[in-house]
């Protein structure tokens, strides 16, 4: 049993933070081994009706944390200390980049306005409800020693969603639009929450009187659009370098390395400029998959798809395992001096506000989207789909915990009982929503969305094969602005063309913008940055 004693001394008692290089190496070895256990357990439970991989990793993290807690005789419960910098700098970028790189661009941009309304306006509505509710209700349960910025930060913390559980259940082939809405809103929601959180954190309430809301909104818009344009710029630069220099003629490894490093550079450059790395790396991923991916060799295309997906998968598992182990950190619970009754009241208030804040924008914005789209544009968001979208955003994850640590701790540690209570309450909310709501996700969606026969979809609509561009008028509607005869003879006047274009824009706005974009993309963008033309295009959207 000497190895057991040595491991507990080097890792459990030292916590992997002060035991020197030996303790750090052992901590990493143990954590990696537990990660492997999570992967095996997730594989074995793949067909389970109630459990998914995120829940499995969370539960395994709790078990490992409990074992460490017992071995250390109550002194410790984690192998590594949760650090929001570690999370934001190393773990989150591959997840967000892969989300942009693998996204079905046609569905994403077809539903772009709805996704942005959910992900931006929805977050503002949720933040307002959660912040106001906490400010009003916390004192009623005996907890109210927080400042105005803290209450606003709580709104951003608990408005950040985690849609992983729902996305693992929804079929992208059977319900491509629903999948696109849930997926797209999840990414934009996280980005908006982080951007808004940073804008709130930089507020100086003492110097702002009536312009607090205006200041927050202006900072948000600056961060949002600047970060997006930086991501697009770096993605286009990478695509141009790959097309102009053609790395593949000498080494395919350089192609893959350049794409990966430029993606990470986009994130770190944004953090250096105090912008939003999430938005930058997400849109950088979209641009790279649209242009740069077509400028590399076939083997590099396959490699990049699998490497980025694998890194994202490992990072997601790492996060849930990390959160599970850190939840039993005894220091936070000892520092919090809140009674059980007050803690229960805080938990109930936060959960209620999360439910209310989510419903306050999902259903009204869905109705507004259906009204603005019109019957000829696309199928409406049904009430059952609205319930799924509402449910998908109820889970809270590592982003909420990371933001809470950022606001209420210093390097993962706090000696303030009030701040410790917020940290422990955040952990409880994350665990409850992930486990309880996560357990119920699969049976709920099975009941709400009964199995639909697979339609003969093409990959542009969420499947996986080749798109002809003509099989589905709803999804691949392409109408020339002038008839072939008019175009060939030049008899179509500018007035008639403008009239026809305006008529199309009013009747089918999304598809009309999409037509304009494809023409512009084929004529100006793809000849410079790469990618197949319209006549050769397969699964580009």
From TrEMBL:
Q: Which reaction does it catalyse?
A: Na(+)(in) + H(+)(out) = Na(+)(out) + H(+)(in); K(+)(in) + H(+)(out) = K(+)(out) + H(+)(in)
- Segments crossing the lipid bilayer: 20-42, 54-72, 84-101, 113-138, 178-200, 220-242, 276-294, 306-325, 345-367, 388-408, 420-440
Write out the annotated subcellular location: Membrane
What main location does UniProt list? Answer: membrane
Annotated region (Disordered), positions in chain: 451-471
Gene3D superfamilies, per the entry: 6.10.140.1330
What GO annotations for molecular function exist for this entry?
Answer: potassium:proton antiporter activity; sodium:proton antiporter activity
Q: How does it sit in the membrane?
A: Multi-pass membrane protein
User: Where does the record place the Cation/H+ exchanger transmembrane domain?
Assistant: 34-445
InterPro entries for this protein: Cation/H_exchanger_CPA1, Cation/H_exchanger_TM, NaH_exchanger
By its UniProt entry, which Pfam families does this protein fall under? Na_H_Exchanger
User: Does this UniProt record's set of keywords contain NADP?
Assistant: no
> Which UniProt keywords are given for this protein, alphabetically ordered?
Ion transport, Membrane, Potassium, Potassium transport, Sodium, Sodium transport, Transmembrane, Transmembrane helix, Transport
GO cellular-component term (any): plasma membrane
* A GO biological-process term: sodium ion import across plasma membrane
Q: What does UniProt give as the signal peptide span?
A: none
* Protein name from the UniProt record: Cation/H+ exchanger transmembrane domain-containing protein
- What does UniProt list as this organism's lineage? Eukaryota, Viridiplantae, Streptophyta, Embryophyta, Tracheophyta
